[in-house]
Amino acid sequence: MESATGQRASVRGWLQDLWLVAIYDDVPDDEVRRWWNCKETDVLDVLVDVAPGFRLGSIVTADGDPPSPTQRVSSLMFLHGTCPEDFEPDAQASYVMPLLDAGLRAALLAAFAPRLGDHPLMTAEPVDTLAAFLDEHHGARLLTHTPTEAVEVLLGPDVG
Question: Is residue 51 within 8 Å of residue 21, measured between CB atoms?
Answer without folding.
Answer: yes
